[in-house]
Each structure stands twice: as structure tokens, then as C-alpha cells.
């Protein structure tokens, strides 16, 4: 059976993204290496367009739509970063976007999405089914729906972050990736295992949002109550069906981190690396700094995003 996403798909996505998405930097810190006891290479997707890796998958998927469909428009549902990503991708391609977004999404993310020209529609994430609402919205208006992770073109686009990291560093022993719906780690693990068959891929989830860990342990998708965590971009209650079919084969382990460990990682990144990272973007770094995963050799960590308001950021790192 052919894999749903291959390294060739990821390389094709990289070609589409060339000159459109940023090739984000990989940074080092001797202090971090000493604290962790390993060589750590940080892929700064907080410096990506829209401030998160999500632009990669959104643009890769949107760029494949027909001119007729682009004229009708694009729809998406998201807890924030995918919303901005689809809005910008639509603008880049001369299309329009309608975004379904949870009412409790940080205002900074709502404002940024509207700033890219998207129409915003809100729903209650604790009582509404965003997939059903999003599909109905798209069908009613004739829009192409680009989901946050349940799409091979989205996953292939996200995998370009790991592809770049692996190209820009010598052989890595471990790749550490934040996990929400599973799209970033599905694409990243596909790229990593193709290029470095012996690499260990570790996902990181908030302790309150451990649906992927539970699912991998059970070898089937497990649903949990909607997590309440500062890592709002990782507040998934069940892994995606497509992403889980990839991750169950390629992901070696899942580490869990507490909200306090995430805050500590955000503070460390700000003080030592001079990076502003949103909570969801800091979980991989948090797992290393807190010792929630074994650390040795050469470790690549993807910082997935940096979309957090100044007020919220100050509140979190001062906690």
C-alpha cells in the first residue's frame, strides 16, 4: 500500500514554497547544550510567515486548487495559526478566505487573521463540532475546505520544516516535534525517516492534552475531553485519522509536559535565545529542559510558532 505522504511529496511541496515561505534559521545555544547534555539544533518556525509552520501546509494545499476554485474562495477551521496561514495563502494566490475560529482563541490571532483579509466566523469549541460546522460552511458557499492537518498536501507542506532542518544540519539522532492534531509530526517524521532511517522521532504534548500518547499506547485513536492548557494550539481531543495512520508507524515516543514546564521553556527562550515563542511552540524545548525525554547526541527541535500577544507573553513568563 502506498504511503499517504512520501518524501517526494515533501520535496514537491518544498519546490512550491521556495521564494514564498521563509527558510527559517536553525539556532544553537551552548547554555542549552550544557543544560540538556546534548547538541541541540532549534528550527525557528516562530519566524515563519504568519509566525508559525502552518503557512507551509496551507500554501502547499491552496496552490494546487484550480483557478475556478480560487475564484470561489477557500474555507478553514482553526484554533489560530492555521487560520492566519490559510488567510495569507489565499491572499498570495489572489483568492479569498472564510475562517471558522473558536470564540476563545487569543485576540491577537483573531486580529492577525482578519488583517490578512479573511472573513471570521466564530463557534464554541466546547459545544460545537468544528469539522461539521466547517464542512457545512464550505458546502453552502462553494468554498474549498483546507483542514488544519487531515490532508496529504497540508501534511507534505508541514514536512518541509523538518526537511530543511535535516538539510541544514549534519546527521541528527533525534527529532523533537510538538503534537496537536499531528500534521507537523506526520510530515516531519516522514521526511526524517526517509532521509535518516535510524533517527528517533519524539512528539511532545501538553500533559492535559495527551490524546496522541494515549492513542499510540492503545494502537487506536483515543478521544479525551477538550484539554484546558496554556498550549491552546495543541488543544486537540483526538488525533486526526490520516495523521494517526502515519504517526503510529513513524513516531517513536511521546513526551508530556506541564504548563509550568512550558512557561519555563518560554522564559528560557526569551532570556537565552532571544526568541518569542507561544506556549504550543515551546513544548519541545520544554521536554528537553525539564528532562521529560532522554537527551543525548544531536537533537533537532522544531519551535512551531510564536503568535502570542505581548500582554499574554509577559503574563506567562512572569508566572
TrEMBL record:
It catalyses: L-threonine = 2-oxobutanoate + NH4(+). Its cofactor is Mg(2+); Mn(2+); Ca(2+); pyridoxal 5'-phosphate. PROSITE patterns: DEHYDRATASE_SER_THR. Residues 22-305 form the Tryptophan synthase beta chain-like PALP domain. Its EC number is 4.3.1.19. It is an enzyme of class 4 (lyase). InterPro entries: Ser/Thr_deHydtase_PyrdxlP-BS (IPR000634), TrpB-like_PALP (IPR001926), TrpB-like_PALP_sf (IPR036052). Pfam families: PALP. SUPFAM superfamilies: Tryptophan synthase beta subunit-like PLP-dependent enzymes. This is threonine ammonia-lyase. It comes from Amycolatopsis orientalis.
Amino acid at each position: 500500500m502506498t504511503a499517504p505522504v512520501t518524501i517526494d511529496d515533501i520535496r514537491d511541496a518544498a519546490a512550491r514554497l521556495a521564494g514564498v515561505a521563509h527558510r527559517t534559521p536553525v539556532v544553537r545555544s551552548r547554555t542549552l547544550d550544557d543544560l540538556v547534555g546534548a547538541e541541540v539544533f532549534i528550527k525557528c518556525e516562530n519566524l515563519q510567515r504568519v509566525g508559525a509552520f502552518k503557512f507551509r501546509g496551507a500554501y502547499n494545499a491552496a496552490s494546487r486548487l484550480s483557478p475556478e476554485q480560487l475564484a470561489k474562495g477557500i474555507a478553514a477551521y482553526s484554533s489560530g495559526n492555521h487560520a492566519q496561514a490559510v488567510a495569507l495563502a489565499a491572499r498570495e494566490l489572489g483568492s479569498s478566505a472564510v475562517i471558522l475560529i473558536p470564540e476563545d482563541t487569543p485576540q491577537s490571532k483573531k486580529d492577525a487573521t482578519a488583517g490578512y483579509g479573511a472573513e471570521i466566523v466564530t463557534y464554541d469549541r466546547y459545544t460545537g463540532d468544528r469539522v461539521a460546522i466547517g464542512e457545512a460552511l464550505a458546502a453552502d458557499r462553494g468554498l474549498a475546505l483546507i483542514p488544519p492537518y487531515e490532508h496529504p498536501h497540508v501534511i507534505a507542506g508541514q514536512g518541509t520544516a523538518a526537511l530543511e532542518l535535516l538539510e541544514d544540519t549534519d546527521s541528527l539522532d533525534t527529532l523533537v516535534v510538538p503534537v496537536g492534531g499531528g500534521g507537523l509530526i506526520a510530515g516531519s517524521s516522514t521526511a526524517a525517516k526517509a532521509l535518516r532511517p535510524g533517527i528517533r522521532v519524539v512528539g511532545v504534548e501538553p500533559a492535559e492534552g495527551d490524546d496522541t500518547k494515549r492513542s499510540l499506547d492503545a494502537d487506536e485513536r483515543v478521544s479525551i475531553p477538550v484539554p484546558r492548557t496554556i498550549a491552546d494550539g495543541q488543544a486537540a481531543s483526538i488525533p486526526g485519522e490520516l495523521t494517526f495512520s502515519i504517526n503510529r508507524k513513524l513516531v517513536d515516543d511521546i513526551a508530556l509536559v506541564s504548563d509550568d514546564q512550558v512557561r519555563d521553556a518560554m522564559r528560557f527562550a526569551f532570556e537565552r535565545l532571544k526568541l518569542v515563542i507561544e506556549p504550543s511552540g515551546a513544548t519541545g524545548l520544554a521536554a528537553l529542559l525539564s528532562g521529560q525525554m532522554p537527551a543525548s547526541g544531536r537533537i533537532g527541535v522544531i519551535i512551531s510558532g510564536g503568535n502570542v500577544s505581548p500582554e499574554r507573553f509577559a503574563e506567562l513568563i512572569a508566572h
